[in-house]
Amino acid sequence: MAGWLSLDLEHPTPIYAQLDRGIRAAIATGRLTPGDQLPTVRQLAVDMKVNANTIARVYLDLERAGLVETRRGVGTFVAAQAGAPAQKRSGRDPELRAIVQRCLDEAAARGFTADDVVRQLKTVTDRQGG
User: Fold this and answer.
1) Are the beta carbons of 57 and 76 closer than 8 angstroms?
2) CATH class as words, domain 15-83
3) Which of 31, 33, 46, 81 could form a disulfide with 26 if both were Cys (CB 3.0 to 4.6 A apart)?
């Protein structure tokens, strides 16, 4: 199975959304870098125990977003520009704020505090080297 991607079948977030977010996060954090080949649709579907059509839809949406590119007969790869660190970050504070708010809301619904979230963020980023 792809060690950089995981699913929580008990979580209320749809499988499609978990896969999409997981792949985007792997690209954003450098676990997947430009030029890296993603597993085939069939292989990832088997590994994750989900329908191949779900994987195909995620890959297609990521391709439309410019994050991956599919080379017919070869495979799906992380796009060259996908890992660019300065991906138009200016003016995106509202987008990041919304992500943080969703995280805090979900944590609170599960009984965690903002301090708990911050502590875990520090733990995870320390493990990832930054």
Assistant:
1) no
2) mainly alpha
3) 31
